[in-house]
Amino acid sequence: xxxxxxxxxxxxxxxxxxxxxxxxxxxxxxxxxxxxxxxxxxxxxxxxxxxxxxxxxxxxxxxxxxxxxxxxxxxxxxxxxxxxxxxxxxxxxxxxxxxxxxxxxxxxxxxxxxxxxxxxxxxxxxxxxxxxxxxxxxxxxxxxxxxxxxxxxxxxxxxxxxxxxxxxxxxxxxxxxxxxxxxxxxxxxxxxxxxxxxxxxxxxxxxxxxxxxx
Length: 214
What we know:
The chain is 29% helix and 25% strand. The chain is α+β, with helices and mostly antiparallel strands. It has one domain. Helix 1 packs across helix 2 (46-63). Mean pLDDT is 80; it is low at 76-82, 188-199 and 205-214.
């Protein structure tokens, strides 16, 4: 039987509450990184900022009753010290939370065999399966929630949810079934134009009308 990969909208609809919580944890984490820099009376040090984000995000998740593991506690590999993430599990999914690669792209697994294995996820989208062909979703869908910041104040800029299909040691080796933005910073402008209007993939936070423009 073939493996049917759920669409981004299906995943977001099913796990919206969890994704809202994860985005809020990341927002608190980036604020914590800026507060640390202010306390040190220096600019945000991007070499340690990701670790500060992860630390505060994990605190928030635990306070809210959501278990989260440091990535190296599951499969420690030293080359990922600059971008160690969190791992969160929910029924039917596992989510690794990582800082985005440049240009908001999925991070590259690099030399890590465990990340390569995590990224390797074969399956077909609904439109690629014949109507009479039997198919079922994977027992556990492996996802990457990756985030980026903007400006000297290290504001959370965008959060993406990706479903990898393969990945190796180079940028070109990274493939995905899909990789979609699910949250955008308020007032994000490109060439003077406010970013795209709300879509079904936007995560709605308690103190915001939407995940896009204000």
